[in-house]
């Protein structure tokens, strides 16, 4: 049985249940998505709608299982990327090692092309 992670000081709320909590102002202006956000959206459509690798419920479960710190510090599309990565491993489409090796290849290709590459690693937890 799945155990819900409870938010610190949230009176029993789950980590993802942030309605009514103070998180600062919300930018309600219309804005274009960044290229990487558009790509994340396209990957989601491909993997979910076309390939049927998981359900909306699985995606939601994966995002809701993030720890409080990870949930609070992660942007909307970052949550999607992390959930897709974790579901690809969970569904045994790819292994952690395969994903990490591919990410290292892409990072090296970007470095060689003179692009800035973040050294930030996203936790698997």
Describe the structure.
- By secondary structure, the protein is mainly α.
- It has a domain at 35-112: Orthogonal Bundle (Cyclin A, domain 1).
- Helix content is 50%, strand content 0%.
- The chain has five helices and no strands.
- Helix 2 packs across helix 4.
- The longest helix is centred in the C-terminal third of the chain and has 17 residues, at 96-112.
- The chain starts with 34 loop residues before the first helix and ends in a 13-residue tail after the last helix.
- The model has no long low-confidence stretch (mean pLDDT 82).
Distinctive features:
single chain, 125 residues, mainly alpha, Cyclin A, domain 1, 5 helices
Sequence-ordered SSE layout with sheet pairings:
Layout: H1 35-50, H2 56-64, H3 68-73, H4 76-90, H5 96-112
Helix pairs in contact: 1-4, 2-4
